[in-house]
UniProtKB/TrEMBL annotation:
InterPro entries: Homeodomain-like_sf. It comes from the Eukaryota. It comes from Rickenella mellea. This is Homeodomain-like protein. Pfam families: HTH_23.
């Protein structure tokens, strides 16, 4: 929707209140996206820190777990956990694996 806000403003020359109504957001939000677009040429701040907690398992871990399960679909979570710890040196909870 952020990209649409930019198009509505600069391509269609719509007023801010109409853009806010189309986007289903507040006018302040529209102004914020327009300001980001002017400052960085995009609708996100490239210098902002990532939000949220870092992921416990990355794509390499997920691919490894997938290959284990494809080879042996009857593995239990505790067996997956011990293989992940042994071969990838990654210790996560069983709840993370489930």
């Amino acid at each position: 929707i952020r990209v649409h806000i930019i198009k509505w403003r600069y391509d269609l020359q719509l007023p801010i209140h109409e853009i806010a109504k189309l986007a289903g957001c507040h006018e302040r939000t529209v102004y914020k996206f327009l300001q980001l677009h002017r400052a960085y040429g995009q609708v996100t701040n490239p210098y902002a820190l990532p939000r949220g907690r870092p992921r416990a398992l990355n794509i390499m871990h997920l691919n490894y777990l997938r290959s284990l399960l494809l080879a042996n679909p009857s593995l239990y979570l505790d067996e997956l956990h011990s293989q992940l710890l042994l071969n990838c040196d990654t210790d996560v909870s069983l709840a993370t694996l489930s």
